[in-house]
Design brief:
The complex is a heterodimer of chains A (240) and B (299). Chain A has 7 helices and 11 strands. Chain A has 240 residues and is of the alpha/beta class. In chain A, the strands form 2 sheets. In chain A, strands 3, 6, 7, 8, 9, 10 and 11 form a 7-stranded mixed sheet that branches. Chain A has a 4-stranded antiparallel sheet with strand order 2-1-4-5, covered by helices on one side. In chain A, helix 3 packs across helix 4 and helix 3 runs parallel beside helix 5. The longest helix of chain A is centred in the last third of the chain and has 16 residues. Chain A starts with a strand and ends in a 13-residue tail after the last strand. Chain B has 2 domains: 189 residues, no CATH class; 83 residues, Alpha-Beta Plaits, CATH 3.30.70. Chain B is elongated and about 100 Å long. Chain B is built from 11 helices and 4 strands. A 4-stranded antiparallel sheet of chain B has the order 2-3-1-4. The chains are: A alpha/beta (240), B alpha+beta (299). Chain A: Homodimer. Forms a membrane-associated complex with FtsX.
């Protein structure tokens, strides 16, 4: 299967500090589902930032959708970003916009017709259980509700690559299962999904998922990707 | 314009908070536009006055024959009037009659000018030289030296040159003030845009990560700041217009022909009315350049 993401010897440092990520080499197949795990400070969010093009690496090669994005001109970035859905750990909803307008934003940025947007957004809000809160602003939503709006925004445009940073951290187990089901549904439609999480139970819910484990900015399995065995819980490692 | 741009534009209204007159920018622009409109009005009025003065004085010469003997004075005046009319390039020669002379002198000398012929008044001849024929002044001097030795030539253009120079200087000063105010407005807009970029940094980052282009983001700020500038400009113009109108009335009340020409004409009012639009245009350009420059530096 063709790879949608390819990292080769990627390193990342902020300023002149030590490398946050070192020697990352892996590839993600198109249409695959991955969990990104590792202790706090392992570099999961930094890796995700590289994936959703918020950051360029300090060294190495990253190919996304078959193109080298390290040397990609700045003015071509937006078209690549529109192919990626992002669920931020801190939601990053726009405070002046209603839940509806927040979810509609990727479609508006992409120039989708307002009638189409209305249908898609209302359907999506209903799916995440926020049909009645469409006009609510983020400040009036609970943490869980904000998280669901953030997820709805990330998936509304049916991205080719979905990157989620702790997407179920603020929702109850039932809602977590529902959201994960949404990710799986998207995955079945061809979206490559990568979810950073600490929740071991979450890993067990997706039988076909693979796991990438980061430790101190390096892949735990430098050879590539470790297959998740759903029959057994993931090996527990002491937190460093 | 792409469909994406249009859709973003249609939904822009809710993307940034848009409370009108909430920040200092519209008020700052209102103050600057008030001063700019006053300076522009001054420049336009003075420019027109300078043009009128130039028109009125160009080629105007008065010949005075200062001769104590009334008969000799009269003879020289007649000869001068006759000879000057023959010089090529001279459009008109007119003798200022006695009644007109007395009327001119009465404010200075009182009613005495109207009693008897004891007051020796010079004979005065107004000479109009055709445009571009100013060099004929020398010929006038030579002719008068021959036929009217008591004649003195008063070249209006030369005698009022300092006043014309002052008016021209004030006109240029007004233009300079308008340009300086426009520049200052541009800088104020740049500072306001930078501040808005800082305030909405998080929103901009999210928009970028969702695939918004720099131009789409710039348009959000352009629209908002252009509206602020337009609103501030309209307030500034609305405050300045009555001031200009009242000053025009005061100038008119002076009864001076020159002061009267300073008053604004309809086209000048239209020009002043266009200043807030020009201000909004300037603000739009300054905002766009600032936003695009700042975004290019970010990543």
């Amino acid at each position: 299967m063709a790879s949608i993401v390819q990292f080769e010897n990627v390193g990342l440092r902020y300023g002149t500090g030590a490398e946050i990520l070192s020697d990352l080499s892996f590839s993600l197949a198109r249409g695959s589902f991955h969990f990104l795990t590792g202790p706090s400070g392992a570099g999961k969010t930094s890796l995700l930032r590289l994936l959703f093009l918020a950051q360029r690496p300090s060294r190495g090669l990253i190919r996304l959708f078959g193109e080298d994005i390290v040397t990609l001109p700045r003015d071509r970035m937006p078209l690549f970003r529109r192919r990626i859905g992002v669920v931020f750990q801190d939601f990053r909803l726009i405070p002046y916009l209603s839940a509806y307008d927040n979810v509609a934003l990727p479609l508006r940025v992409a120039g989708v017709d307002e009638a189409e947007i209305a249908t898609a957004v209302n359907e999506m809000l209903a799916w995440v259980g926020l049909g009645s809160r469409a006009s609510a602003r983020p400040a009036t939503l609970s943490g869980g509700e904000q998280q669901r709006v953030a997820i709805a925004r990330a998936v509304i445009a049916r991205p080719e690559l979905l990157v989620a940073d702790e997407p179920t951290g603020n929702v109850d187990p039932d809602m977590a299962g529902r959201l994960l089901y949404l990710f799986e549904a998207l995955n079945k439609l061809g979206t490559t999904v990568i979810v950073a999480t600490h929740d071991v139970h979450l890993l067990e819910r997706v039988p076909d998922a693979r796991t990438i484990r980061l430790d101190r900015g390096r892949l735990d399995d430098p050879a590539g990707i470790v297959r998740t065995d759903i029959a057994r819980p993931l090996p527990r490692r002491p937190l460093r | 314009m792409s469909a994406a741009s249009t859709a973003m534009r249609a939904s822009n209204r809710r993307l940034l908070p848009e409370g009108r007159l909430e920040g200092p920018l519209p008020w700052l622009i209102a103050i600057m536009m008030f001063l700019m409109v006053l300076a522009a009005a001054l420049g336009l009025g003075l420019g027109r006055a300078a043009a009128s003065l130039a028109d009125a004085l160009a080629g105007r010469v008065t010949v005075q024959i200062v001769e104590g003997d009334p008969r000799a004075r009269e003879a020289q005046a007649r000869a001068a009037q006759s000879e000057l009319g023959r010089i090529a390039g001279i459009r008109a020669v007119r003798r200022v009659d006695d009644a007109e002379m007395r009327a001119l002198l009465e404010p200075w000398l009182g009613n005495i000018v109207n009693h008897g012929d004891d007051l020796p008044l010079p004979a005065m001849i107004d000479v109009d030289i055709a445009p571009g024929e100013q060099w004929r002044l020398a010929a006038i001097g030579r002719t008068l030296a021959r036929i009217a030795p008591a004649a003195r030539i008063d070249d209006h253009g030369r005698s009022l040159a300092p006043l014309a120079g002052l008016i021209a200087s004030l006109t240029w000063l007004a233009i300079a003030i308008v340009l300086l105010m426009a520049t200052a407005t541009g800088f104020v807009v740049v500072l306001a845009t930078r501040s808005a970029l800082d305030t909405h940094h998080a929103t901009i980052e999210v928009l970028h990560l969702l695939g918004a282009t720099d131009s789409q983001i710039a348009r959000l700020f352009q629209r908002r700041i252009a509206l602020d500038a337009l609103l501030g400009g309209a307030i500034g113009l609305a405050c300045a217009a009555p001031v200009i109108f009242l000053l025009g009335l005061r100038l008119g009340a002076l009864g001076s022909e020159l002061a009267g020409t300073v008053a604004l004409w309809p086209a000048a009012w239209l020009l002043l009315g266009a200043l807030p639009l020009a201000g909004a245009g300037l603000a739009t350009i300054a905002t766009r350049r600032t936003v695009l420059g700042a975004l290019r530096r970010t990543s």
